[in-house]
Amino acid sequence: MTIKQVSEIYNISQDTLRYYEKVGMIPTVNRNKSGIRDYTEQDLDWVQTAICMRSAGLPVDVLVQYLKLYKQGDETFKQRLDLLKNQYDKLLKQREQINQTLEKLNYKISRYEIAVKTGKLSWD
Amino acid sequence: MTIKQVSEIYNISQDTLRYYEKVGMIPTVNRNKSGIRDYTEQDLDWVQTAICMRSAGLPVDVLVQYLKLYKQGDETFKQRLDLLKNQYDKLLKQREQINQTLEKLNYKISRYEIAVKTGKLSWD
DNA sequence: TTAATAGTTGGAGTGTACTCTAAGTCAAGG
DNA sequence: CCTTGACTTAGAGTACACTCCAACTATTAA
After folding, report:
1. A11-50 residue pLDDT tens
2. CA distance A89 to A85
3. Is the per-residue pLDDT at A109 higher than 90?
4. Closest chain B residue to A118, measured at CA
5. Does the CB of A45 fall within 7 Å of any strand C atom?
6. Closest-CA residue of chain B to A70
7. Distance of B25 CA from D27 C1′ (whole Å)
8. How high is the mean pLDDT of chain B?
9. N vs C: which end of chain B shows fewer Cβ within 10 Å?
10. What is the pTM of this model?
């Protein structure tokens, strides 16, 4: 599968796909005889995961670290587990933060719904 | 209240507080006769809200836009409401993204829990 | 009175994550 | 054969959100 197809499937730029590979967030993709990337199903799995993790805000260097451990083989299960747990906890906190902000926004929104109708903003 | 106190209460750097004011994310804080910031309760409200919104990921320029509308007065209720709703929707999507990633991480974590015990990673 | 401490400003510098550019290669269609 | 278009690389440039710095001023304790 070409980089163009992958970029269309996942709605991500070709530059970003090359960047993810260059920094080591995903394993090196095989090239055909003319040096063009040919993504395998496995590559797609890595791409998919990378995009998922990044869109939730996991830092690039953490994902790079994960791939590095992965490439070191079975000796690194524990380290990979710790890394994943660590990111899991951070995401829980981030979700909690979002929940608080949603509440605050919701409160403000309801005040403005009224303000738009009545022409004035109540209580402070 | 001094900038030092505010920074300690909210656990944010003085530089960041000054930055938020400089870019217009919060209103200008009054200075005493020696030119030093003296935060009022109202200022603290703005600071608090700014920190909350930023920590959920709302962009600085959106918060700047909000304050700009706020300063323009009652004519901008509708615009402020739209802006807030817009950010609310984006946060809902972001939370959904985090939920998906948490699920994925959870799946990986449970596989690694087993891998750490058995010494090998099952299914793929 | 002087030294330390805490604040001020404008502007430069940094880290993160892309995003773009230039120069080149290759395969296919006219 | 030659052009077009999709790909390649290394490396430069950009956007965002701080973060740091230099030079300065004001207050307080010794």
Report:
1. 999 999 999 999 999 999 999 999 999 999 999 999 999 9
2. 6
3. yes
4. B77
5. no
6. B121
7. 30
8. 97
9. C
10. 0.93
Query: What is the C-alpha separation between B96 and A109, in angstroms, rounded?
Result: 21
- Residue B94 and residue A99: Cβ atoms within 8 Å? no
d(CA B32, CA B124) in angstroms, rounded, equals: 66
Question: Is A91 in contact with B105 (CB distance < 8 Å)?
Answer: yes
Relative orientation angle of helices B60-72 and B41-55, to the nearest 10 degrees: 140
Residue A83 contacts residue B116 (beta carbons within 8 Å): no
Residue A73 to residues A22, A23, A78, B1, Cα–Cα distance (Å): 21, 19, 11, 56
In three-state form (DSSP H/G/I as H, E/B as E, the rest C), the secondary structure along chain B is: CCHHHHHHHHCCCHHHHHHHHHHCCCCCCCECCCCCECCCHHHHHHHHHHHHHHHCCCCHHHHHHHHHHHHHCHHHHHHHHHHHHHHHHHHHHHHHHHHHHHHHHHHHHHHHHHHHHHCCCCCC
Residue B122: per-residue pLDDT: 83
| Whether A81 and B116 lie within 8 Å, measured CB to CB | yes
